[in-house]
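Hi L.,

As promised, C-factor:
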Amino acid sequence: MSKAALNYYTKALSLEEPKLITVALHPGWVKTEMGGDNALLSIEEASSAIIKRICLLKKEDSGKFMDSKMDLTP
């Protein structure tokens, strides 16, 4: 799925299901087979950051695309 399609789907789902908080979260550059050994974050670091961010989400965040620091991503 392209980034544009994911952003659209996230926004559409947030409007369709207003009781849910629906966001797209970018984990950062993670050391995986795809990210490679030079990536900045281990899988453990990235997943821990994402879990912490999920716990901080608010209703007004719904429909947004964010990185693991909760910064909006275009």
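Residues 3-67 form one domain.

Thanks again for sending the construct details.

K.
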